[in-house]
Amino acid sequence: MWATDLQPFLMGILVSVIVGVALTLPISSAAICAALGLTGLAGGAAVAGCCAQMVGFAVMSFRENKWGGLVSQGVGTSMLQMGNIVKNPRIWIPPILTSAITGPLATCVFKMTMNGTPVSAGMGTCGFVGQIGVITGWFTPSEAAVAAGATAVTPGVFDWVGFALICFVLPAVLTWAFGLILRKIGWIKEGDLKLTVVTRA
Questions:
Q1: d(C-alpha 102, C-alpha 46), whole Å
Q2: pLDDT (tens digit, 9 = 90+) per residue, 61-72?
Q3: Residue 168 to residues 35, 99, 123, 124: CA-CA distances in angstroms?
Q4: pTM for the whole structure
Q5: Handedness of CA 21, 23, 24, 28 (dihedral sign)
């Protein structure tokens, strides 16, 4: 958090990418953020990275997984793509690139803070917990955020626009665009993002 305040561009990239990757890996990004007490600009970058993964994979894989996949990944978890990532790691490039863009936009341009409970920073759009954390943090900062110097604020239009862009619009548009490029050059092939349904015998 201290480093992000000092170097918001570089740390915006690092925090966004690392926490986003942790979200998709079979580990708990929420637990990591909670353990670090991540709030403020660093928390905002973490939310950006998680949204890039969840919304990004949901939109990028829409042609394979349709509406069920959109909801299960966008509001559930991008971890569902882990099996496909093992088969073709290149499918991970679009959401990672997106998080490297939205992270510093969150910290440097929109100054998006996440002053809700630290665990919310690592949740992304899962049940919209990350978004709830950002909004509640504006009006009623958590104890961890207050301890780090946060105070209640009244968000303006610019804050709401940044919130929508970082959490939903840019992850969807950028990841889809990067994914399209990788499909055109053959790095991502039809079916590489298909979610498999496990049935019990």
A1: 10
A2: 999 999 999 999
A3: 26, 12, 14, 10
A4: 0.91
A5: positive
